[in-house]
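look at this stuff:

>
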Amino acid sequence: MRFPAEPFRIKVVEKIRRTTRDERVELLQRAGLNVFLIPADAIYVDLLTDSGTGAMSDHQWAGLMIGDESYAGSKSFFKFESAVRDVTGFPSVIPTHQGRVAENLLFSTICSEGKTIIANTHFDTTRANVEMNHAEALDLPVKESMDPQLGSLWKGNMDLAKLEAKLKADRDNVPMVVMTVTNNSTGGQPVSMENIRGASKLCKQYGVPFFIDCARFAENCWFIHELEPGYKGKSIIEIARELFSYADGCWMSAKKDALVNIGGFIAMNDVELARKLQQKLILIEGFPTYGGLAGRDLEAVAIGLYEGMEQEYLQYRTAQVRYLGEMLLDAGISIVRPVGGHAVFIDAKAFCDHIPAEQFPGVALTSALYREAGIRGVEIGSLMFGHKDPATGEHVGPHLELVRLAIPRRVYTTAHMTYVAESIVELHKSRHAIKGMRLTYEAPVLRHFTARLEEV
């Protein structure tokens, strides 16, 4: 078997409908060729994101029924707090309704003009929250991450030599260093424990707080378990506890590795910083023991944190992603190698090598994939991360032009993955018929969510 059979059986099913190509052409036109704006009931296989799109377990659904909806001091909060403390070791735990709120609370507090937040690679919402608070979001990925074809391990790592140089030169203007695990923007690539330990040591040396963006920490710990010497005999929770021990705090979109549809948190050692964040939380989300979540959601996160670390589940989860990636590689489709933990990333620059970056090859590919097969992915390239040079007006794009196929957890079967692979292979045969695009509307921030485009 190319990946182990699902370690669960299906109890409830949701009907999905097949649309015709003509229907999809019309829907794309209405959406301005932006698949974010396509109604979900018109998608056959939805790989837009793995955030909040997974299937909860019977234990999590049962947990919803015992959720305590008290405004303050809910029993469900104390279960949630206990679970987060048990896994991360951080004493101050603040619930949020998703990771983006945690980012907003944190960066609106620590960022200002002239400050720099350093990361292995900021994802889109992280970068936006930093920049909206007038700070610089500086990425320091290792050089190996810039080559999609390079199959080396730990392409999610941070360049520690560059980190030390930056801290040495400007530590007073660096309020925080962030390690995103796994590293979404570089292809869902894991970060090694050695790299985390090294970054932590440098931050301690220069007196700069070190935080983990831990949305996919369990998948990262699985890669450490499988690939890093000395960890094969350790459990995932033991590896996780070591990972968090090197940090001063973390935040999480629980919609990923905690296997829930909504929820998140920020946790840390710094009691004074936590108090500042709690005061902001009260203004915009609610009392600190619910943070914008229902008690039933707190119950589901407390259960899902542990389910997401089960080794049998993680073996299946990462192998299903690898299965899709290997089918594409076998057909000669260029993807980011090695296959990451939560998604397969198509190299849109290679797939649409006839489309220049300023015509958004990744968006063109996502549009074509939906039109031909009813599959929704997401561009991670010039629309998401590109911009115009204010001096010259010329397009400045990221190094990588990718289309991410993010696989929801415990949702799709092997047959679905086969359908996705076969559809992409068929599209690849006629790829030079895919046309470039230009913007007809763009928002000033996070433009990819609501942009409208037309074919060139």
